[in-house]
Automatic annotation (TrEMBL):
<feature type="transmembrane region" description="Helical">
    <location>
        <begin position="252"/>
        <end position="277"/>
    </location>
</feature>
<feature type="transmembrane region" description="Helical">
    <location>
        <begin position="340"/>
        <end position="362"/>
    </location>
</feature>
<feature type="compositionally biased region" description="Low complexity">
    <location>
        <begin position="9"/>
        <end position="22"/>
    </location>
</feature>
<keyword id="KW-0813">Transport</keyword>
<dbReference type="GO" id="GO:0005886">
    <property type="term" value="C:plasma membrane"/>
</dbReference>
<dbReference type="InterPro" id="IPR020846">
    <property type="entry name" value="MFS_dom"/>
</dbReference>
<dbReference type="InterPro" id="IPR010290">
    <property type="entry name" value="TM_effector"/>
</dbReference>
<feature type="transmembrane region" description="Helical">
    <location>
        <begin position="317"/>
        <end position="334"/>
    </location>
</feature>
<feature type="transmembrane region" description="Helical">
    <location>
        <begin position="374"/>
        <end position="396"/>
    </location>
</feature>
<dbReference type="InterPro" id="IPR036259">
    <property type="entry name" value="MFS_trans_sf"/>
</dbReference>
<feature type="transmembrane region" description="Helical">
    <location>
        <begin position="402"/>
        <end position="425"/>
    </location>
</feature>
<protein>
    <submittedName>
        <fullName>MFS transporter</fullName>
    </submittedName>
</protein>
<feature type="transmembrane region" description="Helical">
    <location>
        <begin position="172"/>
        <end position="195"/>
    </location>
</feature>
<keyword id="KW-0472">Membrane</keyword>
<dbReference type="Pfam" id="PF05977">
    <property type="entry name" value="MFS_3"/>
</dbReference>
<keyword id="KW-1003">Cell membrane</keyword>
<feature type="transmembrane region" description="Helical">
    <location>
        <begin position="283"/>
        <end position="305"/>
    </location>
</feature>
Amino acid sequence: MALTPPPATQHAAQPSATHTAPLNTVTTRPPWNQTFSSLKIRNYRIFASANLLAVIAVWMQRVAQDWMVLELSGSVTAVGITVFMQFIPSLVLMPLGGILADRYSKRLILMISQSAAGILAAIMAVLALTGHLEVWHIYVIAFVLGLVVVADQPARQVFVNELVGPRQLRNAISLNSSIFQMGGMVGPAVSGVLIMAVGGGWAFAANALACTITVISLSRIRANELVQMPPVKRAKGQLMEGVRYALHKPTIVFPAIMAAVFAVFGLSLAVLMAAYANNVFDVGAGGYGLLNTLVALGALGGALASTRFATLRLRSVMMAAGAYGVVLMIASTAPSMASFGAVMVVAGFCSLLFLTSANQLVQMSTNVSIRGRVMSLYIMVLIGGQALGGPLMGWLAEHWGVQWAMLVAGGMPALAAVVIGLVLAKRGQLTLKVNLRSARRLVFIVPRATGQEPV
């Protein structure tokens, strides 16, 4: 199923949440000089610049947090529990964040949430730098930070549309993913150096400073240049309205199902890389930071590649998820740090190609008046899945061995992608064709009957 552009009509009134509002999309591959087109918008430039700094700091804190838990406890399972504590609020409460995003100012929500995140990072920094940090401190702060994420993430996703408008939305989503991965390249490497040189406490202090800068940057955004939607009035049944809306759209429900499997198994890669760095290759915190940087390097390529797509297709989203699973299965057999690191670059590329394309497809398929609630459900699945997957994959790594855990982490997304692909093929009346005369198109998909929309 392809997402095709609807007629370019204008609506003065707030659109009904029943159907997707008309959106401006592209039908041809954009030229290279349009790869960063959304950065021409002043408000988005301010947001993106602050976001890059913040993401670098968040990655620094994330790596320092995981490594310090591993050092303090000596347990990979404890690292998984930290992931669980940080993400379990999203699994339970994220839809409430979506309602907040639809009802109130997204910029105000982000300013409050970033202030809270900065305070939490400052507390972690003080505890770590004074030598009083214990594992239970990290658990508690990770849980409270998870509550902050419940309010932050839906508002952040929807706020991008207000910054750039519908015409530039796909480009801005891809650039946001690129920014996240650029931060993922720099942050882990810097954090690894800091941990070895002066300790992980300074990574938390850097994140506290970055949160402060983010709040200041949000205050500089010009409200009169935002593409604002009227806030949704308080009413009963708004959460279920979002659920029903999502369930009736294949371009939302299938990416969400794939994201659930992807999150539980595939997005626990950081837990497994910590085990590989500490137990298999014995490369310490610096090696762990390097592995995170290599994943982010590939992911940056995947995010930028997503800006080149002319159309969004469900089958392309599923193929990216399946490819990621296969790559992780290959990683489980890597004999050395060099070969494992090389595979991690490819894993990062496939991972972000799926995550960015799925995010674009869900957002572009959703009416702006209900987008906060729909995105909160999608984020709940994506982040909440990591709450379950972190402890699970940590336990598997300790009791089965990290290689077997990596095999499971890749095998489950690959299997899910195949199953969903078969369902989509049946729904779209598609079949496989084999052409032995062409090496370029040996196997390809065609409709069984004419007039069917490709998926």
